[in-house]
Amino acid sequence: MGWIEAEAGSTYLLAAPPQEIDQHPCCFFDNPACDLKDKTPNNSVMTLKYVRDPIHGYIAITDAEKRIIDTWPVQRLRGIKQLSIACLVYPGADHTRFSHALGTMHVAGAIADVLSQTGEISEDDHQLIRIAGLLHDIGHGPFSHSFEEILVKHRGLNHEEMGKQVIKKSELADAISEIGYSPQDVVDLVFEKESAKKRYLHQIIASQIDADKLDFLVRDSYYTGVEYGRIDINRLIQAMSVYQEDIAIDLKALYALEAFMIARYEMFLAVYYHHAVRAAEILLHKAMDHAHEIAGFSTFGSVEEFLRMDDAYVLTKLRTLDPSKFSNAEERKAAELAKQMMGQLDRRQLLKAAYQRTVHISDPYVARLLSDEVVRKQKEEEIAQKAGVDPEYVTVDVPTLDSIPYYPRDIDPMEIPVFHTTASGKRELVPVSQYSRLINVLKGYVDVVRVYTTKEHREKVERAATEVFKSLPFAAQISM
Fold first, then answer.
1. Which of 234, 253, 288 is the last residue of a domain?
2. Residues 158 and 305 both lie in one domain
3. Which of 191, 198, 285, 376 is the most exposed place for a label (fewest CB within 10 A)?
4. Which residues pair with 356 in a beta bridge?
5. Which structural domain, as residue segments, surrounds residue 55?
6. How far apart, in whole angstroms, are the C-alpha atoms of residue 173 and residue 68?
7. Radius of gyration (Cα) for the chain, nearest Å?
8. Which of 350, 377, 396 is the last residue in one of the domains?
9. What is the pLDDT of residues 6-46, one digit of tens each?
10. 467 found inside a domain
11. Entry pTM
12. 51, β-bridge pairs
């Protein structure tokens, strides 16, 4: 992505690219609701530059944003794929966290433009919101969620906790301070729901319909070639309003809201938790888990050491592991297993799903099974014993991180405020389920339980898993 620079010579400089600029709320000078063109931080000259994005067209970049973008923590995101190794299943899915960060910044600014009509959003708030959108994923490690599972397990750190540290303890802190903001203000806006001075500002970045989701659904759909994520972003943004400190959606945009709900659900099943995508993720996770200490994936001592790691770093470490160099038997065994699994990934020798069940109902037993690693390990050992195979070749797989799209462990993940306007012009909240049976169904509980194994053990593991999981409550078996 290259910069298209503005001409010098005016208080606020706009470099409008050739007639290709898209006409939607995200374009500063095309949107009548946007008054940013009359604002210059600290009364200084502001130059806009442009990045051509396949999803949103031309994305405008301010001087302040460029200062942040050109730091190493942000540039590092170019080396981290948005969908980890989903490209082994969807060859086009090699887009990065960097492009998603720019897209989220862009959408966050568009939402702020619209909300400024019903909420108090100052010039400083507007710029801070865009920076928050840019940095919302700054704490992701290599291969995103796969690596996050390693950090959560061995360091008790998720990408949000790492994001706070990166913003406050890297060169980002200096860059943010130089443009007139506090790193803590950015942290509060992105990660701290209760600390946000205005709740609706935080909801632009993190809520049930936020800039993050509105970008990644269409972006991931575009790059995978899957059509499910094609939603009307502009209609949803235009329908947003501030109601009692919360972002609410106008009932008039119900169809766009339903399409959004369907897109999240279908993308979860078709892309994020596709059986082959997860098969590859499991191999990668196991390889990183075996090597987490000997390769230094979880032993970094500073933010700078964490920021050295991207996808290429991890792949190189795994591919170059030499078990013979480890005198300790346990470390040598870990290196052998990690190298073996990396070799399987490189040759696309993926694990096979021997058993699958989709659960659409909440049940305490199922929830505990899905969220408790100890319980899952017990089930793996039980299945392995019944099948007569090594437990190393049996994996019970379920979504375990709340940072994945459409996290199924949220019993009611899609509680979105919806309002309608009365004849007198007064806005009132309404229960969306009263107007849409579809949304009422889609906002419920959904989860996927799979058991993976190697090709040669597939039949035995299938029989064993079916026997082990037959004890699940009847209500949980409705979607077998």
1. 234
2. no
3. 198
4. 450
5. 12-234
6. 10
7. 24
8. 350
9. 433 322 333 444 333 333 333 333 343 444 444 444 433 46
10. no
11. 0.87
12. 59
